[in-house]
């Protein structure tokens, strides 16, 4: 049976249907959220942990979902925040800077059995790691996930113009990195 998003959200909030609805929610969005998180975290095992935390947070906070945005945009925002929080905690735990952690993560990609990229893709990941966090997010969302600026604006709570500028700057920096490295 097909439900409108509003009906689906009501099923998620209703204790008599929430378990079944959450199974459907996970089936619908698990893969898309996995790849969004993976683009930020890079490591497969850490991505699985963050994905699980994301769904737990969605489950615990579904009653706070007001419907001001699409359900997926709300979950995407949670996944993004969970990813950033995870990386910040990991950097603090290792007593290194965020930049040092990014470099370490990229270095580990070469030995990651789940990373199927070639040398060019590895170089692209290294270039992306040199970008400021916001530009990394925007670039990943546009380039890898092919989101529209309108969707990104809803998820990141910013204007389409600002996103276009961030993406443009990110592309220029990546091109420059690839030329010089």
TrEMBL record:
Designated name of the protein: RNA polymerase sigma factor
Domain RNA polymerase sigma factor 70 region 4 type: 122-174
Residue ranges of coiled coil: none
RNA polymerase sigma-70 region domain boundaries: 25-93
Source organism, top-level taxon: Bacteria
Taxonomic path: Bacteria, Pseudomonadati, Bacteroidota, Flavobacteriia, Flavobacteriales
Entry-linked InterPro entries: RNA_pol_sigma-70-like, RNA_pol_sigma-70_dom, RNA_pol_sigma70_r2, RNA_pol_sigma70_r4_t2, RNA_pol_sigma_r2, RNA_pol_sigma_r3/r4-like, WH-like_DNA-bd_sf
Keyword NAD part of the UniProt annotation: no
Keywords from the UniProt entry: Sigma factor, Transcription, Transcription regulation
